[in-house]
Every structure is written in C-alpha cells, then in structure tokens.
Amino acid sequence: MKTKLAAAALLLASTSLSFAADLATKAPIYAPAPVWSWTGFYLGAHVGAGWGTTESTVTSLSAGGIVAPVSFPIAQNSRSGFLGGGQLGYNWQSGWAVFGVQGDIAGMDVKGTTPCIVLASCTANSDWLATVTGRFGGVVADRTLVYVKGGAAWMHTDHTFSVSAVGPLGGGVGGSVSSSSNAFGWTLGLGAEYAFDHNWSAFIEYDYIDFDKKNIGFDFAAAAGGPAGAAIANVDIKNKLSIAKVGLNYKFGGPVVARY
Questions:
Q1: Residues 6 or more apart whose Cβ sits within 8 Å of residue 145
Q2: Are strands 97-116 and 120-140 parallel, antiparallel or unpaired?
C-alpha cells in the first residue's frame, strides 16, 4: 500500500513540474505595434523657387476719347525668384491609395525686367500666390507617399513700364507707369512625401501653373500729372510659372493601432 501511495505522489509531482515548465516556456505577450496612416488633417510650411515668363501685348490705345485698336507684342519677360508660405489639407487613405485636398498660400518675390519698345523697359514682379488642389497618391516603401495634384491658382503681379531717354548733353529724362493684375489659372504638380515620425513628414514638389490672359490699363496721362484716363494703353498679360519647393507637414492625431 505504501509503495502504491509513493508511486502516485511521484506521478503527481512529475506532472506538476511538467505543467509548470510548459507555462515558463510560452512566448511573452507584446503590445500591438503602431501602424502609420496618412488619414487626417495636416498643417505645414514650405520654401522654394519660382521661374517663368510674362508675355505683354498692346491691344488698344486711347487718347481724347478716341480708341484705336491695335495688336502688337511689346515684351516677353523671363522672371525668377524665391517664395515661402504655408499649406493646410486633409488626406484619406484606403489601402495603398491616398486621396486629399490642400490649400496653399505663399509670399513671393519672382520678378524680371526686359527691354520693350526701344527705349523702354518692362518689369513684372509677382508678390503672392494661392492654390487649391486635389491630390491622389500611392504609398510605397511603407511611409513614402508619391502623388500628383491639380486645381486652381491665383497670383498677384505688379507691372511697370519705364522710359529713360538720354539728351544730347547727357541729361536724362523719363518716367514710369504701373498697373497690377490678379490672374486666375490652373496648376498641375507632382511630389513625394516621407513620414519620418508619427506626426511629422517632409516633402519635395514641382508645380506648373498656366494663368489666363488678363487685360490691364496703363494710364500714362495720370503718371505724367495730367487728367486720369486721358491717355491709356490697354495691354494683355499672359503669365506662366514653374515652382520647385520643399516643406514640412504636421499631421494631427496619432498612428492607427493594429488589432490582432
């Protein structure tokens, strides 16, 4: 009887030790790993460079109430400079595809001067640019977004027509007249953005913008101290602009947590 009890005790002890060993060798339980998502609102800033052309064509001349329709180009101005501003947008991700909408506004100093009509010079200086675009992209290499964008653009430009003539004794005479335009156009662009943190991402982008033709008036009589509207040249202005920029975005909200 004692031998049977001892055997049972040994069997029970060995079973308990084996069960305890199995518990000790089970893999530890880890917390779910965070998964990046592009979905959410974001706010950011950018800097870059702009370059393009401004084409000017006189369409009519008026003096003393008489309007003379004409049509001759006076300048094709190459321009370049720098810009900087901010952007606000929203992305929505579904699988690998990312859809978004974005608004940008930037201050800029993109200007150029070219000779026009023999003794004159024509200057165009754009000082702000705004765009509203839709975006579509795809996620590659985990946290890299490659995208295309397109939409509407607005730009403000100051135009100056200057005359400087040299007299026979070396003295100079001349003057200038200015006007401004707010042009509307369309834009297409492409870029790549990399999320290097749960909330921060950096991007590089190229945009091409083609603005509608805008007619503006240069009031030469008022510039010379005469009555306003007595001598006006109406000029069609056509702007084209390319932009290369880099920037940072901050996405509101944290990462999506994977569920096992």
A1: 38, 98, 137, 138, 139, 192, 193, 194, 195, 201
A2: antiparallel
The rounded radius of gyration (Å) of the Cα atoms in the chain is 34
Mark 105-117 as b/e (b = at least 16 C-beta within 10 Å).
Answer: ebebebbbbbebe
CATH assignment of 38-257? 2.40.160.20
Strand partners, 66: 63
Rounded mean pLDDT for each run of 10 residues along the chain, 260 residues in total = 47 48 54 75 98 91 79 86 98 96 97 83 93 97 94 95 60 72 96 94 98 88 60 88 98 64
The pTM is what?
0.80
Alpha carbon 153 to chain centroid distance? 10
Terminal alpha carbon distance of the chain: 53
The pair of three-digit structure tokens given for residue 115, joined into one six-digit string: 């000779």
Task: Return the C-alpha torsion angle 45, 47, 51, 52, nearest 10.
Answer: 10
Distance CA 27, CA 41 (A): 39
